[in-house]
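User: Hey, my collaborator sent me this sequence without any context and asked if I could get a structure. I don't really work with proteins. Can you help?
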Amino acid sequence: MAAAAAAAAAAVGGPQPPQAELPAPGPGLDKAATAAHLKAALSRPDNRAGAEELQALLERVLSAERPLAAAADGEEAAAAGGGGGAGAAEEEALEWCKCLLAGGGGYDEFCAAVRAYDPAALCGLVWTANFVAYRCRTCGISPCMSLCAECFHQGDHTGHDFNMFRSQAGGACDCGDSNVMRESGFCKRHQIKSSSNIPCVPKDLLMMSEFVLPRFIFCLIQYLREGYNEPAADVPSEKDLNKVLQLLEPQISFLEDLTKMGGAMRSVLTQVLTNQQNYKDLTSGLGENACAKKSHEKYLIALKSSGLTYPEDKLVYGIQEPSAGTSTLAVQGFSGATGTLGQLDSSDEEDQDGSQGLGKRKRVKLSSSTKDQSIMDVLKHKSFLEELLFWTIKYEFPQKMVTFLLNMLPDQEYKVAFTKTFVQHYAFIMKTLKKSHESDTMSNRIVHISVQLFSNEELARQVTEECQLLDIMVTVLLYMMESCLIKSELQDEENSLHVVVNCGEALLKNNTYWPLVSDFINILSHQSVAKRFLEDHGLLVTWMNFVSFFQGMNLNKRELNEHVEFESQTYYAAFAAELEACAQPMWGLLSHCKVRETQEYTRNVVRYCLEALQDWFDAINFVDEPAPNQVTFHLPLHRYYAMFLSKAVKCQELDLDSVLPDQEMLMKLMIHPLQIQASLAEIHSNMWVRNGLQIKGQAMTYVQSHFCNSMIDPDIYLLQVCASRLDPDYFISSVFERFKVVDLLTMASQHQNTVLDAEHERSMLEGALTFLVILLSLRLHLGMSDDEILRAEMVAQLCMNDRTHSSLLDLIPENPNPKSGIIPGSYSFESVLSAVADFKAPVFEPGGSMQQGMYTPKAEVWDQEFDPVMVILRTVYRRDVQSAMDRYTAFLKQSGKFPGNPWPPYKKRTPLHPSYKGLMRLLHCKTLHIVLFTLLYKILMDHQNLSEHVLCMVLYLIELGLENSTEEESDEEVSVCGPERCHDSWFPGSNLVSNMRHFINYVRVRVPETAPEVKRDSPASTSSDSLSSLQSSRRPKVLQRENSGTAQVFSLVAERRKKFQEIINRSSSEANQVVRPKTSSKWSAPGSAPQLTTAILEIKESILSLLIKLHHKLSGKQNSYYPPWLDDIEILIQPEIPKYNHGDGITAVERILLKAALQSRMNKRIIEEICRKVTPPVPPKKITAAEKKTLDKEERRQKARERQQKLLAEFASRQKSFMETAMDVDSPENDIPMEITTAEPQVSEAVYDCVICGQSGPSSEDRPTGLVVLLQASSVLGQCRDNIEPKKLPITEEEQIYPWDTCAAVHDVRLSLLQRYFKDSSCLLAVSIGWEGGVYVQTCGHTLHIDCHKSYMESLRNDQVLQGFSVDKGEFTCPLCRQFANSVLPCYPGSNVESNLWQRPSNKSIQDLIKEVEELQGRPGAFPVSISSETNLSKEMESVMKDIKNTTQKKYRDYSKTPGSPDNDFLFMYSVARTNLELELIHRGGNLCSGGASTAGKRSCLNQLFHVLALHMRLYSIDSEYNPWRKLTQLVEEVNSQQGNEEQQPEVPILYHDVTSLLLIQILMMPQPLRKDHFTCIVKVLFTLLYTQALVALSVKCSEEDRSAWKHTGALKKNTCDTEKSYEVLLSFVISELSKGKLYHEEGTQESAMVSPISWSPESMEKYLQDFCLPFLRITSLLQHHLFGEDLPSCQEEEEFSVLSSCLGLLPTFYQTEHPFISASCLDWPVPAFDIISQWCFEINSFTERHAEQGKALLIQEARWKLPHLLQLPENYNTIFQYYHRKTCSVCTKVPKDPAVCLVCGTFVCLKGLCCKQQSYCECVLHSQNCGAGTGIFLLINASVIIIIRGHRFCLWGSVYLDAHGEEDRDLRRGKPLYICKERYKVLEQQWISHTFDHINKRWGPHYNGL
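Assistant: No problem. I've predicted the 3D structure and written it out in structure-token form, which is a compact way to encode the shape of the chain:
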């Protein structure tokens, strides 16, 4: 192979051969022959001549000038020689190449031959965006591992943690690559290490390829050079580029096909692409070829315009070998601005000192110190591969090129070469990306490539070592960000030298930096690479420099006057940038600092981080006070420092103090994070409201789950570290000063706050105390193990709300390296979850709210682990804290632990890590004790602005202090330190335990002149006497010093400044000997207003006494506190008492007092003493009138607020309970009983309530009342099939669903058959329609006056609120129960249930009744209301009839051959009645065994509907001659009249009539209300016909032998009595009559095969007859139930026939039940049976004379339809997804973007696809009209959700596929395996069958036919 390559090189480089040797390659030249000849020539040992010959041919064939010249002149210009224009020439060239490669053979055979040598160890399938791939975390080594669907399903991943995902940027399959995934996960194809048994590639197979391909690729490169024109500055050149790319499509596709031939061809391509000699010879442009010269010039121009230089050959290219160990970077200290390998444009350089003159917006450039421009500006291409990549970048990564380059990756040699090339072009990629207009697409394509290269650790390490990958990446990132720097405005706006990124720039706003950062994160995940980074000081300096660009970005300034005009949304960009560019690389680095050996790395990072911070403080001129009203949430340097400190202590056993700076630096470090915490409180107190909503957005994002562990957690941790090392008094006073509540902390009842409005004081004080509680009790970084943290996080989230599994995963901050998608120890996630939570499976309420599987905290978690502090820290919305407390309260009530309103429980903390012990000193410093004392006093005295929350936090802090008291003090200590300790006017020591009992007598305060304290008469007061005497007994010395002079005024702020100065001026070694200056009660701001005066308050309280009085106050009883240990000494021994765990403030006070007593005997004694003195009530303070007024106002406001809340809550609960009763569509129990069906029979006239005007009364002619109804077209009936097994959804090509066995299809066929042979008008009376598109009427049961309804509709029309329905179409919601409706059905005047008169059984004979019926039918308009007089009622009846007609489409109404014939309307009207009866039957489960009124019955309005239909039917009286009633009840004499009339089509024989239709026609033709005996008469007559039909059908079904046997037995019995009621006799008669015709004849062989040889026994015949008649009996019974209000009896299934027939009056009453029931006994023939039967049979015979086949078909009616069902779905969603998401649409033959499948009939449709649009209707809407008459149920394949279309509206119903945790995965975002949820599917089917989609689903919207 090498020899061949050398020969090729020689040939290419050699002299140009004379052109004459070869005939010109015209169309006539035989390509195959030439190729074979050349191949032979090249196979000789001396192949020089052949090589030259081939080269000349290629010169001509692949000449680059032709196609592009043609393209340039416009494609229509025909190119010379090739004929047929550019396209043809291209084709020709490709044909030549294929021929030459194959060496004369067929190209396809050649491909197959090459494939045979493919050592397919790797899959390497490349895919583009939106491809569906899989990721298995169990098998993946790299987090980016992905598999194509085929490899995934071929491998074994059962029980693994995998998911399916839609690729965003594209990717490639890693199957077979053991660097990226474990071998156990390989699929069957790639498991075999196959290289061993694949034979060696024969030399001559690929010989031609080695010669042809270099030329071909060079030709491609020339095209690319030619086609590229530098875009003009203003016009984006996308169009031209795309044009060139389109022309090159076939060439690149050809290359792509080559890569798919497998390993053998790939290695040839690799040789060609990386061979430097070939490249040099072909592209240098030195030959005589003018074209090549021109192309080389274009190449140089392109390089230059890209800002790159082409170095002369003598220049060594910048990959110098780095000397071992260190890199080429020097460490520079200058302001952190190091130039790495000269990263910056030297052209517009400025020194940093010159930057003062810069305008605020001017871009800031950093200087660069080294002038070696290699990384950014030098590119030299040495091979085809390098130049190809260059053009790929230039053309902004065309998809085809990317795919080709990636397809080559399975070749190892290529992989390395390509990775190096990619790195070499990295800077150029960044520049192109920044300029690109399509940066999104381009980013995706870049990542598509880079993720394949950098996920492989081995490769990443190699490139890092050989090509300085890290230097390049960091430099390129730094360089990229430099383009958008602005001056920082933080702190000192004028003199600031700090620069930050400008978040408004496109680079940040559009996340353009994303691909580069993601690559950086990717390579840092490899240990070997990260270690190099952490060892390299120069890189660390540069990186910190990069991070400091983000320090302080997006600064917020508080608007104090008016609202900001424009709310900037830059904060999205800022948070994203900090997370992606700073935090994620930080987490990546931290993941490699886990063990002790890595201490050095941490020291390096911490060192350079502190240097960068110091530089930052200098640059912004920071001394000690932050600028007011400013906050930035972005302090990445602080966070780097904090996180590395935490890691050092937790994992590396580093001594914390060794990496901490001096006290001054600590003081500076704590300022900005503390500023953020105070600002959070300000934002929540609405102090930033003028900055708009976005500032709230920032506060929320800062604590949100994806950001919190990179933002708030490090900040709090850093504050904890500072607090543990700084002076506690200084820290505490800083906190209160930052929160601006210093002035509030005074004993006086009034104060002035210079920095805060009064309305914000309370919430800011709450904020400050809450912050202290969090600071002191949070242990996230102070000693908790990872599992404990996970558990705490999980408990906090579950306490706020029950959560689904996926939302928990999302809400619990990962230890992020979110690239990975791997949650560290996701196994522990599951185990912790099962330890703390119970799974609540989804419940299916009849109301239909679709629930998901939820996790809810276990009882013991509420009992022991509920931690309010953690909840407060993690809540984004304040309401979640309330929600957690409400749930906690509910738990305590339920478990009987505490009945009242509990306070947040106090939770024991995990022990502190020894390094942070200093933190607890905060609890034992006087400053804090003074604050606590003051607040307790103020609360006791009811000063304003203090809430329960404040008290709660105060008690929490006291309790924390008692839990963490340092030294157990001895009781003697007190007496020793008598006088000396008491110089201090507040507390003697710093220990809380002893300070609690210290009495404070007088306090001097500064108060406003108006304050009540100023006018106090004397310090003496009764309450202090008892206390002072108690005190004097113990410490006489103190009393003598009670002169008020001791209380000197002292300013907290001044104190803090003094401390700060002290610390700065003193070396830190003396920090411990600080002399505490004297403190005083008042902290006032230095420049406080002059009208303050000093007053002395007499207090005489200690913390303990205040607590006891508080107990009295809270419980509202005197002396309520009694020390528990006096009764039960045990308490002191075993203090853990569960009764104190949960409770309110009283419990908390008791718990604290108990702990205080436990800690010291002295406290215990004092508590006892205080309790012994019966404390008189605290005297009421004198309150000035003004003050009282403000207090009252506050109180009144508070009370009003509470009242309003209470009212609202009550209203809400009322509304809810109403909704529950009114809306429960599916549960009959709480349905409002309908007035209609329950009216008493005695009532003469029905009374209706109008739900609008509230009046009751009958419905009358002039003011009719109507029922609120919903009319909808329905095809549910048509979906019934005759077999029980529901159809399955097709999931393979073979399974298809054909609709010919549905009820609708069968009825259609029957009607068209009748219409072929019989008279049209008669056909339309012989069947019912409405199986498809029938109109279903349902009501909620509420009535209203029709005029009220009209005004209601008017008001709806004027109401501009967007409703989910369209008023113009008559839609509205019931004014009472809000159920959807679209019409009003008038109630017929008169009573509901027919009065007894009509019910009475008459004794008339059946003959008389028959005559009466006939007469009544003949009298048109025999209606109580005469139609001619137009009353309101008749008008309404007409309009509702119009509504009913318009509900369904025309095609479902018009079946007649003559359009618009009256018969059509007639048919439609009685079919509406049929549809409603049949549907009600289905709702009852298909039979009437259950009896009673069902749910459907309650919603039914058949009675009213019947009146409306009957009124209209009587307009079309049937011609009496044709009235079927005659044929049923009279013998007709002139039989032959029809025969004579040949040319006119005959009428339908009566035996072909549908009996149920006849029933409805007869009844609707009668005047209403109908008499019961008439009804029974009609039923009896029709039953005789039905029974005869059954006998005929039976006779046709059985075989010839059976027939003759029956004919014989029946004839024998004919003489016995009661022959008309014996089925054998009747059957034999029928057979003998029909034998006269041709019905039984021509029974060929196929006939007997069709009829199954059943042996008919009398039982089976009886059963057949009963089954045949049952559907009619059921419908008739229902009708009787509705018309006459008779109850339906319930029964067993086997006795349904007899029960119904007796209920209908068919069975004679004296019928004996002993012997088996015989259906024939129900017969009651109006005329002699045999005569009428023979008359009916004659009609059939005369028809079968000519059409025997059809005659038979029309007779056999299978009436046994099973209930309708939706298609059966497979268990696993994946089976549906894999088949349908790639399936092509049968209409447009494309793969739809949004495929959907109809769950009723299985049709595959394009959702929203314009491809299948017809007359402005998209396919789904069209299908819903054809398949469901306007109702469609579709499963969206790509989203797993079901969408319902109802008419012009649609709604998302939800999903019936849930994952293992019982939750939906809409849009398949999580891609976990989904399984069918049978209950949900049943609910869906139920809603479909019961037509309740409109009532149950609430979120409807119009679809405008666009689905």
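In plain terms: DSSP finds 77 helices and 28 strands in the chain. You can pass these tokens on to your collaborator as they are.
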